[in-house]
Amino acid sequence: MQWSKHNIVGRTRPAGTPFVVNLLSGNADLLDEVSALPILAGSEPDDPAVWAAKGYWVDPPEEELRWKRAYLDFLDARETDKVQIFFVPWYGCNFRCDYCFQDDYNVKPASLVDEVLDAFFAYVAEEFAGRRKYLTLFGGEPLLPGDAARERVASFLRRAAAANLDVAVVTNGYSLSDYLDVLSLARIREIQVTLDGPPEAHDARRHLAGGKATFERVAQGVDAALAAGHAVNLRTVVDRRNLSHLPELARIARERGWVANPRFKTQLGRNYELHSCHAAGGSGALYSRVELAEDLRDLVREHPEFLEYHRPSFSVSKFLWQHGELPKPLFDACTGTRTEWAFDYRGRIFACTATVGKSGEELGTYWPEVRLERDVIGAWQARDTVSMAECKACPQALACGGGCTSVAKNRTGEILSADCRPTRELLELGIGAYLENDGDENASEHP
Length: 447
Fold this sequence. Notes:
Elements: E1 2-3, E2 7-11, E3 18-22, E4 27-30, H1 33-41, H2 48-53, E5 57-58, H3 60-80, E6 83-88, H4 114-127, E7 133-137, H5 147-162, E8 167-171, H6 176-183, E9 188-194, H7 199-205, H8 215-227, E10 232-238, H9 246-255, E11 264-270, H10 289-302, H11 317-323, E12 340-344, E13 348-350, E14 364-365, E15 371-372, H12 374-382, H13 389-392, H14 397-400, H15 405-412, H16 423-438
Parallel strand pairs: 6-7, 6-12, 7-8, 8-9, 9-10, 10-11
Antiparallel strand pairs: 1-5, 2-3, 3-4, 12-13, 13-14, 14-15
């Protein structure tokens, strides 16, 4: 018998309470200093049966069998997951966000013609037959102003409705109010809109090409979409320049009635160097994952009401607190070419939104002919924590899942390389933050 190689052991920050998390056994526990001594020291416990019952103290061959069963269950579940199919009708955008990673793509403009739309929907019908799926309009900015753009989006949505496919939309929100009649042509699953803070912070980062402010018009679009019954996912791209403004954005969201609407949810996206970085202030404005988590923890301590607006994930901490249990083991964090694909108006196929539009990342074409780079696709699909050497001996692998393929490939040049996540540090911050917010009296409810 020995300690499980999947134990993640740490101390909450700032209190320093010992904890152990094990994604394979599905258990997580806060420990007192006396009971924590053996697992912290790596010595044999005095009461091994207690630790063995929760999968922290294991017989290695038995644990290996549990790991294999969990891996097969993960693969089976992914085969039945919904596939998200992104479509880029153009890369044009009416905004000039100072951190846009698509600025360097230099994609030649072209009109979205019926032949391309017909080829796209034919490809989806054939290649994803039998799979649960939905479409997502992406960009650039898919909801550009003007009759020509409205007509092309309407044509896409009519085809989606005819194919009985739900559609999500990722938009900057500036023309959202003007598009609500067009969006009624299909079943809209969700509308993702980005606001990077209250007006002053948002408008400094996300303005029109001519410099005009955008906050109020985007906010009015959110108002209108929620009033029309749409689900809205409000996203904020975070770096050092706007994090401190988030409590004010949360206050605005409460006052406008968004937070109380059951169709409203939020997400935070870390601004990071994906292919290139155009953030004002350069890379010094960017957070590492741990730095962002540390500052979010401090923000929550100072403004606990912020948690009514958004609960940071802190790796699996948010899931644990919301559900009272751990998520299933994550053998692969990358959805590209498994449950995510991206297509553009030029007939090109990509793995995901992180690569769509970038020259050299194409995985094939669906128009004017169907052609697939099967060797490259195979490498993407073979990448998981089982295939990467860095992951095999890592106790955090089942929470990290190997990270993003695109980021790893940019860093190493290899698809089969890891984008490691600081899982233990995020758990230390997250479990500490949620314990502190809930109060110590509730700690036993969330072991």
